[in-house]
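User: I'm putting together a teaching handout on how multi-component assemblies are represented. Below are the sequence lines for each component of a complex, exactly as they appear in our records. Could you produce the 3D structure of the whole assembly as structure tokens, so the students can see both representations side by side? Please keep the chain order the same as the input.
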Amino acid sequence: MKIKYYKNLEQIYNSKFFCIVFFFLPILLMVIFMKNISYDEIADKHKAVDNKRNHILWAFISGGLVGFFGEVLIEVLCRYFSYSRNDASSIMIVFFIFCSSCFTALGFFDKLVEKCRCGLLIPITGFAHSMTSSALDYKKEGPIYGIGSNLFRLAGSVILYGIVSAWFFGMIRYLIGGIG
Amino acid sequence: MTFYFQNVYLKDTATVGGPYEQKGPLSHYFDKTYSDLYFGEDSWEKAEIHLVKESIQILLNKLGLKDDDVDLVIGGDLLNQITATTYGTVGIGKSFAGIYGACSSSTLGIILASCLIEGGFIHNALCVVSSHNMSSEKQFRYPTEYGSLRPNSATFTSTGGACSFLSNQRDTVRVECATLGRIVDYNQNDANDMGRVMAPSVIDTLTRHFEETGRSVEDYDLILTGDLGKYGVEIVKDYMKTNYGIVLGKRYSDCGVMLYDLEHQVEVKAGGSGPACSALVTYSYIYSLLKKKRFKRVLLLATGALFSPILLFQKENIDSICHAVSLEVV
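Assistant: Of course. Below is the structure of the complete assembly, with chains in the same order as your input.
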């Protein structure tokens, strides 16, 4: 039995199938894929470098400033105009939405956003900016097919997943703590 | 596939640029530049149509031809259904052919028109390409007023309309040979790094061109790629050197890098792109140098990323294509 086994192995070694599968095919695959891998390697060598530290710093400062002005506005409204804190924060949000939309329409807010990035995109200003810019772009196509159908092009997913997550976390809160 | 042409001549060209091109180093080579992106129209799409119309009018005026004297109008742009070309060329020429090769449309048009002229089917042809920064931003990326976050590798769609007039009448500059490229897929899918996406197509077409013609880099005074940007250029140089042993050296440049002043025009990031980018540079600056006989032979490789936002979201790769045309001084 043993002799037969070895003989078989030798036959396998000598067979064309073995040669192709274990010798030529890996080389062929290497030749085919090596080109690809080495392209990515070469391309990675010449990758553009983004100055992330700068962006983070700008986002931190601008986002902080937006928050600071918001808080100042709320304090002013509470102290000197005797609004409740809830009303004052709503007014603050409306004010920021107005500013962001107005600046977008005037044409310089996109340059500010490019500079500050997430500092202006994460607050409500980014949301208003995305809607106003869509509306501006599609106003020539008319109120229905242009503005109406494209207003939420960018903001649509924020609204959808905002509502879904609000419902989800609301349910969790209800299940754990009950109403109230 | 490489074709040789015997009697196809580049008779004249016309270029119209936008405000960003006006600030660029080649602005005084253009026939006309505007400082407003709307070009007197009221939407971005109409502005691009205006570019096509105006560049064709300038060219016909230069040559003293009427609208009907053109046998074939061939052109393309980036907009859906190549609307800028179709609307902009209404009433011009005896026949029209619309092409789409993304940013490689300029050389694709020249190759197809040259084949028809060489075959004796037509006497002359007008090749037109256009692109508008804002209309392509609107179609491919975000609304124009949206402050999108573009990394340093991103290229900037150039604004301009450019057309060339090919004829079988003898002139200084001749379309000498051309290599039609094929679609290349190197598993690239970063829409913000088009240089990296399109560099493989340049490598593929350039090596095939050298193989099929038996030429080398020394046979050309200048090898010019379409719109790779400054990072794509380095990739091509490095890859050609390491894998094929071809040193491109100083004879090689890129239209996207030449069109803008990359140091001072920071908003363009890695360089220009779009069908008009390669056409604006070759039809103005390169063509004037060829006419002055400063160059003997120039190889133009316009590159196109065949990129659809929908298929990119469906996790498909971005394919690219590159067509080469060799222009020679007679």
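A couple of points students might notice: Chain A touches chain B at residues 35-36, 38-40, 42-43, 45-50, 104-105, 107, 109-114, 117, 120-121, 129-130, 132-134, 136-138, 140, 153-154 (CB under 8 Å). Chain A has a mean pLDDT of 85.
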